[in-house]
Amino acid sequence: MIIDAHCDVLYQLWKNPDWRFQDSPELRINYEKWAGNTVKVQCFAIFVPDTVPSDLQFHTALEMVNIFYEQIIAPYENIKLVTSKEDILALKDNEKGAMLTLEGLHPIGHDMIKLKTFLHLGVKAVGLTWNNGNAVADGVGEERGAGLSTFGKQVVEVLNTYNVMTDVSHLSYQGFWDVMDLAKYPIASHSNSRKICSHVRNLDDKQLKALIKKKAFIGVTYVPEFLTGTKEATSKDVIQHIEKIYKLGGEDSVGLGSDFDGTSGFVEGIEDHAQYDSFLQELKARFSKELVEKIAWKNFLHNLEAKTY
């Protein structure tokens, strides 16, 4: 069993309306690839590119929600919407779980009702920013590097109230620490170790240890630039980042957050969903059975305990 905390299939289906979730080979996650492996739960992110005009961003995000329900949930009897630990544990052997997440709060502007609309539509993890800044906080690509705004702090309180995970991936350094002070359920859905690879999107040891102290989920991601700092990487590089987080004390935090369909780079040995079973065997060859289960699914599931609204 595997839970993957992040992918950008919804963005790709929105961007390429002729593609089909069923079998489009361009998708690194499609139904046929997913049906044939041991990934039990896949998180699907709503990501609105910053090229969309601000007055159309909320509508674009809703289009992606519609894609999620109409193209991923509705056509397949064995794909179930999951919003809680209980939903995941209730999945039958032949069933898969799909969870809706949000990457970046730029589509809501300063409107809390728009945020609550996403939560009522089933979003269970919210990344506060993408790389740029918004009304909530700055992302890692914003030179100003500001933390949470007053509105941003209110956003985190709403996420706490709704028992929704606050995702620090893409968030500015100061924003990270503001979230750690306020969030009940912080996670990093797709971030790696900056000690191994000094990319701005990665987390330094101090940040990783802060997440680990709270047993917060940390999803290692399969982006070559975040793994090696180059355009080339292998599954062994993914395992190196997993091991680094584990050695910092992250046995109960480290997990998987592929970012499939979110980047153009490929990691040799885990190019797409179809390679997940062989990657799981690599993990089993390197770590104990108990630790592999934590990496593969238990650590993510732990962050969903009692998180229903």
From TrEMBL:
Keyword Kinase tagged: no
Coiled coil: none
Family annotation (InterPro entries): Metal_Hydrolase (IPR032466), Pept_M19 (IPR008257)
Alphabetically ordered keywords of this record: Dipeptidase, Hydrolase, Protease
Swiss-Prot/TrEMBL GO biological process terms: proteolysis
TM annotation in the entry: none
Protein EC: 3.4.13.19
One of the record's GO molecular function terms: metallodipeptidase activity
Domain of life (superkingdom): Bacteria
Protein name as it appears in the record: Membrane dipeptidase
Organism: Salirhabdus euzebyi
